[in-house]
Amino acid sequence: MICSEPLMNIKSKYKIFAFVLMLYCYSAYAQNVVKYVQPMAGSGAATTPAALKHGAGTELFANTIPAVTTPFAMTQWSPQTQASENKCIAPYRYSDEYFSGIRATHWLSGSCTHDYGSFTIMPVSGKLKTHDYAVKLKHSDEQSSPYLYSINLINIEASVTSTPRCAILKFTALKTDSVYLLITPNSDYNQGFIKVDASRGEVQAYNPVHRIYQGWGKEAGFKGYMVAKIEPPIRTHGTFAGDTVYGDPAISNKKGIGAYIGFKLKAGESISLKIGTSFSSLEGARKNLEAELPDWDFDATVAKSKAVWEKALSQINLQTAVEKDKRVFYTSFYHAMQQPRLYNDVDGSYPQFASVNKIGKLMGGNYYDDFSLWDIYRAQLPWFELLKPSLINDVVKSMVLKGQQGGWLPIFPCWNSYTSEMIGDHCSSVIASAYLKGIGDFSAPEAYRLIRQNAFDTPANRADYVEGKGRRALDTYLKYHYIPVEDSVPDAFHKKEQVSRTLEYAYDDYAAAMMAKKTGKIADHNILIKRAAYYQNVFDKNTGMVRGRHADGSWISDYRPDSKAYYITEGTPRQYTFYVPQDVPGLARLMGGPSKLESSLDSLFIKNEYWHGNEPGHQVPFMYNYTSAPWKTQKVVREILATEYGDGPGGLSGNDDAGQMSAWYMFASVGLYPLNPVSGEYLISSPIFDHVSVRLGNGKVFQIAAHKKTRNSQYIYLVKWNGKIIGKNYITYKNIVKGGRLDVYLQDKPDLAWGANSAMQPKGIN
């Protein structure tokens, strides 16, 4: 029968079978990547060379946590070793000795900010204890993944799995005994409320959110809410404040408040808690719980959460024989999906931005907050421009909504408030980048109105400015075309830092200029594009670096290029000199030409002054692509990938900052980097993987293949796009989103010609 079929049909059936087999093999491979995620990575003090040389204090900690969560969830669930919500104290540190519960946390992953609106659940066996109940932590007793955390405690096994807004916790007795669960709102302000309704098998609680930075200590105008459902029936219950136990079912506004619920369990029996969280109300938490966890099936929830992570992570398929590289990559991907934070309930309710107890209602999409904008505009959000444009659309809409509700675009919006933490005005970059790439359906005129206001105006009401609205020191920036050192920038958490502010405002002005041009605001564009060159006004040609400048135009006399300076943000003049992502060719001209730029970069790396743990340097290794020696980018990037990232607790080179450090790894390891995100250009370097397949957000597939002459090949000598040689050392967003294949050919020795001609390189602002 088969032989009697036409040959064409046989070939067609064979091709179909081969295609189906290929899809099956790809599916099987892609659905087994979550195993590479190492949630403990970054939970300890950094052990990388750059961190040990340049970091100090909290800068030495990546401050990531082993979060059980789903991508961009409202609430993460973390083991707790630190009970405070204070600044720079992550809920979990690998080196801590004691475990004190499982926390429903809103920690900004990898940051040095604070937790807020959090709650902790701690099991206690035997006699009731409401203080001094922490138990010795043994890492051998922990099992950690993105979808499940479990730990064997004294006589109890504790486990947690989650959904975007909810979680199921299970506590299993290892021997017959009394078991108590302590539930505590973690307020450092002696506030909060908790109530046990034993007849309904329910606990309700809230924890008021407070601000830090601008408005430090003030209430943020909303709360973290939780509703917990409990099985089996509660045997005994009460409340406490520290070591004082009350018989009352409810307690509020005392130091160290909490509730306890007690059970008598036989060995192998369990207590289950289904917990819903919300930023809107207790009723919102209850609705979220009913929608996301309608039943008590813990194992099914684990399976669903695992499937969510498999789907998210398998957008990237890697081929390599180096298993550690897979672990670092997929761990980075996991870290990059912690924030921004989902803020709305399942019915669309959310707390309005910078308001007091005002609840809004979305008609569609999601509202997000906790934007570590000084960091994530560089690589983390650009990564998701490619993979999740729908997320970016919601991000931009959320930013615009904040601007409408608060009156001004925020600088660094976290805990749904103005903060003016860090420097710059990078909402402009994020919004302009999305708009220029054609991402989303947000209102471009309204978005530009808000961008323009930040770029040209200062709040008329000083109280608004003090609260964090508007660019810091904009008046002096516009007057002098740089920020002189005489302006101490008093109304900011990061005071002074005048040179760094000038450099970052120049980039934001460039972003605003590009959006102005696209929206037809030509007069604005012409002004803003000139301001994009203001970086030149803090560049001292005598030293070849940026330098603090007085209002009269003279340079400061105390100048040490490799020491931290008050006019530089978290770094040195040498390190910050290279922050001109909008106009690297212009910076090269200031220095005396591309060869001078190359030698300046050489000095930075030879002197070991490159600090990977600080974001303003993240573009620096790729800047050789603007010189006659792009091969040095390939060399330096490979060294950073090998030395500044690992898969253990100390494997991140400083604060991960909401996934920016991790996103740098993802881009660099596949051989790309968006040095200037607004431009839509990705500089090409050498990938460490043999093959990368990216399932883009539009459904197209983008592939990167590395062709090595030997195992150690790392230097590019040829690049092809869809089979044709390309004469550029970068690729554009427009090309990538069409889908296609980038073939990168590598050899052991540097190719001095590839990418070395200025015609092959991105342009500046002219």
Automatic annotation (TrEMBL):
The keyword Secreted does not apply. Residues 284-747 form the Glycosyl hydrolase family domain. Monomer. The keyword Zinc does not apply. It comes from Mucilaginibacter gossypiicola. Its cofactor is Ca(2+). InterPro entries: 6-hairpin_glycosidase_sf, GH-type_carb-bd, GH92_a_mannosidase_put, GH92_N, Glyco_hydro_92, PNGase. Pfam families: Glyco_hydro_92, Glyco_hydro_92N. Gene3D superfamilies: 2.70.98.10, alpha-1,2-mannosidase (1.20.1050.60), alpha-1,2-mannosidases domains (1.20.1610.10), GH92 mannosidase domain (3.30.2080.10). Residues 36-278 form the Glycosyl hydrolase family 92 N-terminal domain. Keywords: Calcium. GO terms for molecular function: carbohydrate binding; peptide-N4-(N-acetyl-beta-glucosaminyl)asparagine amidase activity. This is Alpha-1,2-mannosidase, putative. GO terms for cellular component: cytosol. One of its GO terms (biological process) is carbohydrate metabolic process.
